[in-house]
Amino acid sequence: MPRDIPVGNGSLLVTFDREYQIRDLFYPYVGKENHTIGHPSRMGVWVDGQFSWLGGEWQKTLRYKEDTLVTDVKARNDRLKIELQMYDTVDFHLNIFVKEIIVRNLEGRDREIRLFFNHDFHIYENEIGDTAFYDPDTRAIVHYKSQRYFLINCCDPNKCGIDHFATGIKEVHGAEGTWKDAEDGVLSGNSIAQGSVDSTLGINIQVTAYSENIAHYWIAVGKKYDEVVKLNKVIWEKTPEELIRRTENYWKLWVNKETFNFFDIPQRLVSFFKRSLLVIRTQIDNEGAIIAANDSDIVQFGRDTYSYMWPRDGALVAYALVKSGYMDASKRFFQFCADVISKDGYLLHKYNPDRSFASSWHPWLKDEKKSLPIQEDGIALVVWSLWNHYDEFRDIEFIKPLYRSLILSAAEFMVKFRDEETGLPLSSYDLWEERYGVHTFTVSAVIAGLRAAAAFARAFGEHEYGDKYRDTADKMTDALIACFYHKEEGRFARMGTRTATGYELDMTVDASLFGLTAFDVFRPEVPMIVSTMNAVKERLRIKTTVGGIARYTNDYYHRVSNDIEQVPGNPWFICTLWLAEYEIMRAKNLTELNHTLPLLEWVVDKALPSGVLAEQVDPYTGAPLSVSPLTWSHAAFVTTLMQYMKKREKLIVCPECGNSEFYMHRHVQKP
């Protein structure tokens, strides 16, 4: 089930499912630890002796307030004649999740309406040894274990503190939890429970006929009891309204810090560009990890999650942030990579946000020989993305300590990790994490990484290194053509498996072949690239009303259809956006450039109403598949729209002054 409206501040992340249940709560890192591990925390309403959890009988719309990380949720129940308007956010500075609830009475008489909130914590990602208790000093419920505390409280316009509460056992001896206790509108008042526990609290709201009233609910999160009590006091003193207001203003300021000239780009694309930047930020930990996705439902597929930092994903997301003017988050990511790079210059498969090595299915032993469990494209793209960061911001003091520890270390590894005979990289795992061999995408990334390292070396005056990396990249480019371009097919192979005499080529059409031009290995108009990308466009197009581009022919991951001719695989957002980027690169005039806009419109059309992008969609229904949001999907949209604006800037130049008539940025044009 997709995570529709994530809210966070880089240390605390809260996600909701489409039923508006809290499903994930990450602290103290984005991506680690998930203190619900996907178990739902519910909200319900009691009125006139009737009860309803916010489930299927409620008509709901889940969106965000424009240009913010404050939700805008409407829920209506015609049976209860109740309408709720809710705003959720995580304070931009303090680890407090806060919700405002406007309760509208659709009846022509005064009514008491009770709001109930259930909490199904699994602190430290397990249910063993949790405690939940009612705290009379704060009139709140507190859940804790060891150094993790969650204080949950409410207020209305007249008072602060909860009116009903119950703590109890769950998931043991058939116990369902205290949420069942709420359904008669009255809670037991049990004040403490230990072990596998949950809690439910309630607040009474008086609402006159055809009128509305307001309540607030919050979760203060910390490592000590005194810390959450202090946060609770801050809320009382500042008021929940103020925390929401200041957080709304902060995110508006953040997402509009760069004043781009969007000109006549459709407003829905501009709004989605900003939404993508905001969603990306929810998936980035303040300590530098750019997390692939935080959607615990994927556990059902392989008993693992996407809540990790993959170097490749992180590098491409950092690139999108760099190109759109966001320096700080990308700097922390590059520092993260410098901290975890091995002494031999490679980055491992993936990392936890606390910098520890994450779970992996890449072996250290293959064919009875030691094998590095790496995806070399990730190592290379970190260096490539870092060069783009430097080129954009010229932040030399930041780059200086990374020059030897990260840049040269990775470059030396890439030089050594090559086939002595062909000059191509040695075998590693592909970007889809499915195949072991030498991959065209990986080779392209390594060429780009070596060229970036060469540029750094020359900038630092170490021309010997610069020449070595540039020469290695040039020879690798020649070898890529010689070994991976299939003359009879007239296109590049997606990968090769080393044999005694060369490479056995895999000619499966794969969208990742865009890497040949995405990283400037070849110009997009080169005939070899044109024919390769034409194959991608023709053979990977989804021939249903949904449309889009698949990853590769006969893709098995979350497969919906076996009709490979019509549906070579599910449409992926990144693959569709790669095609858009390629068409933008090839555009020779404004008319050709504008022909790429429908692909961007397709992405917006297939997003959730909140603006969240999944990894892929169902080829027949357009429903989200796999995780959502996928950070890379949003980064790809940001990158593609930036490429569109940059290309338009280059196409329309004033003949008198030499400046672009569509200059995209507020700053003075670079010479």
TrEMBL record:
<dbReference type="InterPro" id="IPR011613">
    <property type="entry name" value="GH15-like"/>
</dbReference>
<dbReference type="InterPro" id="IPR012341">
    <property type="entry name" value="6hp_glycosidase-like_sf"/>
</dbReference>
<dbReference type="GO" id="GO:0004553">
    <property type="term" value="F:hydrolase activity, hydrolyzing O-glycosyl compounds"/>
</dbReference>
<keyword id="KW-0378">Hydrolase</keyword>
<protein>
    <submittedName>
        <fullName>Glycoside hydrolase family 15</fullName>
    </submittedName>
</protein>
<feature type="domain" description="GH15-like">
    <location>
        <begin position="285"/>
        <end position="640"/>
    </location>
</feature>
<dbReference type="Pfam" id="PF00723">
    <property type="entry name" value="Glyco_hydro_15"/>
</dbReference>
<dbReference type="GO" id="GO:0005975">
    <property type="term" value="P:carbohydrate metabolic process"/>
</dbReference>
<dbReference type="InterPro" id="IPR008928">
    <property type="entry name" value="6-hairpin_glycosidase_sf"/>
</dbReference>
